Amino acid sequence: MEKIANGLYRLTFGEPEELTPVSVLKPEPRFGELNARPDYGIPFPEEEICCRRRAGSFLVEVPLSPEEDLYGLGLMLKSFRQTGRKKLLRANSDPAADTGDSHAPVPFYLSTAGYCILIDTARYVTLSMGNCKIRGSRQDREGFESAGTEYGHWWVKAGSGNLFIDIPAARGVELYVFCGEDMKDALARYNLFSGGGVLPPIWGLGVMYRAYMHGDRERIYTLAKELRKSEMPCDIFGLEPGWQTHFYSCTYQWDEERFPDHQKMLTDLADMGFKVNLWEHAYVNPQSPVFEDLKPYAGDQYVWDGLVPDFATEEAQRIFAAYHAGLVREGISGFKLDECDNSDFTANWGFADFTQFPSGLDGEQMHTLFGALYQKTIIRVFEKENVRTWGEVRNATAFAAPNPYVLYSDLYDHEDFVRGMASASCSGILWTPEVRQAESEEELLVRIAAAVVSPQMVINSYQVKMPPWVQWDTAKNLEGERLPNADELTQKCRSLLNMRMKLIPWLYAAYYTYYEKGIPPIRPLVLDYPDDQTARPVYDEYLLGEGLLAAPVIFGKGDRRRIWLPKGNWYDYDTGFRLEGGQWMERKVRPGDLPLFVREGTLLALAEPEQYIGEHTCFRLHLTAYGAEKCSLTLISDDGVSCCYQKGVRKIQYTADRDGLVEPEADERYCVVDYKRII
Amino acid sequence: MEKIANGLYRLTFGEPEELTPVSVLKPEPRFGELNARPDYGIPFPEEEICCRRRAGSFLVEVPLSPEEDLYGLGLMLKSFRQTGRKKLLRANSDPAADTGDSHAPVPFYLSTAGYCILIDTARYVTLSMGNCKIRGSRQDREGFESAGTEYGHWWVKAGSGNLFIDIPAARGVELYVFCGEDMKDALARYNLFSGGGVLPPIWGLGVMYRAYMHGDRERIYTLAKELRKSEMPCDIFGLEPGWQTHFYSCTYQWDEERFPDHQKMLTDLADMGFKVNLWEHAYVNPQSPVFEDLKPYAGDQYVWDGLVPDFATEEAQRIFAAYHAGLVREGISGFKLDECDNSDFTANWGFADFTQFPSGLDGEQMHTLFGALYQKTIIRVFEKENVRTWGEVRNATAFAAPNPYVLYSDLYDHEDFVRGMASASCSGILWTPEVRQAESEEELLVRIAAAVVSPQMVINSYQVKMPPWVQWDTAKNLEGERLPNADELTQKCRSLLNMRMKLIPWLYAAYYTYYEKGIPPIRPLVLDYPDDQTARPVYDEYLLGEGLLAAPVIFGKGDRRRIWLPKGNWYDYDTGFRLEGGQWMERKVRPGDLPLFVREGTLLALAEPEQYIGEHTCFRLHLTAYGAEKCSLTLISDDGVSCCYQKGVRKIQYTADRDGLVEPEADERYCVVDYKRII
Known about the structure:
2 copies of one chain form a homodimer. By secondary structure, the first copy, chain A, is α+β, with helices and mostly antiparallel strands.
């Protein structure tokens, strides 16, 4: 055991593998910030930790107590609290069950006992999280009965055993144990070890609209104009596969037939305030300009007849990045990195686990690291230009916090989509419950409302020609048939999109805290209330920054919403009513409702909605103090787009006391137009 | 490479593991029958076979041609033709997707090129069945394009590469290659190598009715009497968990409160013609009489606080069998062996892969072998009594053909249930699409009709008090509310159950062929027509024995059924119409319809339906010759219940020529009451 920072320990077992997330992804820990925090020891009996080699794998046992609840493991759409479960962590698209397959599994878990553990492996690790009762173990000796729980007789009781980590192929492993004041502090330390959370470009917090996949230049112009004309906020305009000459596999070359003079189109869109984002994946078609150069730096297997670049080699990164720099110089703000997970559930198109790569990685390890390395490759293009990027990705793993990428999925169950925000947040990753289609007006509104309070708001209309608020029915949309009540529905949706725009200063400050302190900007209740037994399983309520609680409505769950308010006093944002916490409340909800609650003592800032965030946007703020006490708020002011924030930002501090609002010096990014206090 | 029988080769790679299906399950090959068959060489380029060790696993490559189609892998509910797919074979209950998880995965596949391969491993093997295009491979050199198929751009073309077998933990493996005249012959040789197919006790081919799980002795009497009074055929009466004092985990002791004087009940049921079958699983409760004795011969982990017996040790088998011998002597005819797979998809109750067993097996290997060893343990009880048993089981693996067990599942999609018969048949295992519940009269009828042509007909009414034909609605059934049209529905269901009873002599002969020649009794078209490209993917039509084709209707697929008739002439069983094969026919179907077709040249025997098959049942046969040619039929006559058939049976041969039926000598098992010819 080696202490490597305050509260951070590296435990080495056996002979660890050479190629792991730490050695390949090379996180850049913020040791300064880590060591400025108090020191903590490991809060479980170290003498119970043990390990053994077994046929084909390496096993580590970590003590658990029956009181502990466990979270993390990456993006888990079908579960949040992991206590008592078994999970096999494999990168995979479209998992059909809650077995650990995920777009973004992360070999990392956190405990309500105030620690978290990173398992430094790129293998498909299996975790048994307290469901295995071993004969002669502490649990056996103490007479813990494992059979029969509240779920039914076949559900094993959580706490039946310790936690077991089973790592195939390995002969050893290193664990990083992050210990803190509580679970949130431990998680923050992990995020700081990863390099700190991402600060998106400020326009990234606006609305992303992804356009019809079969559209051409004219369709793009029509859509862009319609968005602006209808005053629907949009910052990012996404182009889907069809911008390329070939896309399964990819050439990364503009299709000049569908997009003649694409440079002019990009300039025109920029003039209208749109950032442009391009879809791609990393399987390189033989017709791509980079194919020949990448040949020596690719795996020994094709995907869709395309090369699989070995981004663990500097050469593959350099060649791929150099080409993409050309696209960026043309004005592209970011990329959607598709298909970088794997496909055990859909069509089996991925490279096999036994693929061999020049770096020495095999296919299994590469599947774990591929998304992270792909992101790294693209990020370097933008860093070189001293400009932030922001995009979507379909695979991530450890140390993802600093990456300007949000996860998405082709799955679509709305409860799963909301739950994903909870599990992702506990794993140093970001997730968007994108709005892709709807079978009804109600579904559209409910889904958009939930997206308002997500890390990135995405309207992914790649299947339809017109925006969904003028026609949610896919077939009719493609036929150009507008809803009779298109104007009314557009108005309702505009109101929700505007709510997102109002939240931008607040979210930008929350993201800055993610960057500076490692605390996730949007997080489930348990992180702030780990000892609240009722809050522990709650996966559909979130704290946005400090003091704002969102309880998005889940589609298909009826017109009533039960909401757990943690201890303390809260104010219903819509009505201003004061509510006592520590109890459930039930509220009638209509489609498009977005239940928000403000904690007493919060100074809330909402901006007047913009159509998009430009270089010189000045947010006109409405401030509200909740409760009788003095309260304050810090907003972040910088250029919003360059990497210079890493050298410092202006922190704009507002204070509301009995005498009213104490405003800071004037700042070009913010001005207060309104202040009130609700008691 | 070692030739071990005509057409059978053992290929050894690296250093194979010690504990494998061959070494642990010890199949008893029928070498006499195997060597009586013609010799064949391996029909693919042997020089392309290669292997390598890689981190944590062992990889074998077997050549594939793009023309080959592949089948097998065990019970696969969501796929039949495996060409181009990747499958990770893991024993698991309730798999949610088509990834290789299955109640009964079998490391075995067969090819339309006329061979099959058994991979002798108890590991969770991954097969890539022609979906991996390797750079520089034959497929690459020959310019095979892997991208884009009829399914969509992300579907990789089958034939993109060779077949890869990836075996975790292993440093070597043995493959058994069975070569034959065609795929069916190769499969038959595998079944003969396994010991030949099972011949069930003749009553096993009748109807199994599983009774209400919360029922007591009175409920059982009521049900038994109702079945007989309403003349619903039933041979086997199944008792669910509640017969025991404790069942999660199991004590295997009668609950004398619910079943006072159970011995009298068993005798009474036997007098009414019922065989009794008991539910159990193998996790041994501390209160079980065998718990203490089994302690030294169990894994190091509990399941539901129960021991996991190591049935790979003689001692565990002996202790468990000795106890069960007592139950058998009380009159029990067989057992339903539940929960012997694993639970990655449901509640995570199974023992972990890292469990250690006294025999040296680890949890992973044990999960592969557990069902087979459990069956073996129970079979020895009955063999000792020289009596056949017949039951259900939830896990199986290689060499299952001789075992008197049929697989079942808690899943329920009807298309999957029908498809399961196809994949199981190609893997040396049996599967029942049991009828468990229905949301409508239509669903009940459709499901019962499909069960008529399955390896075992099961009405699993464990959730309801009364038979489903008097009330299919579960809630109303529990309240004792009979359908207004209960008599009419009972009549329709009786007609289907009677159809099953009519088929018994025919099925018994088909099962005897399974025993004698290894040919599955109920099998998909491709086995008999491997070169018929249209027949290759068909998973919902079956040959029953020789010359009878069943095309069960699938629930929820509308009122029309498309049926592929292979080349040759066929007769519609219902109408007697002659149909030309080699084409699709479409037929309107009503609930309860069971489309059957008889191949020209077949002499079909159907019996008058019995209520149950007793020791001295004599089947009254109706024979029909189809077509103008001379045709013949062999039925099997023996005591139907003992193991003496292994020393020979009476083969009763019927021949129909221009002059009419040539009857054999009188036999106590069969008499002909009717003969006709349809031209």
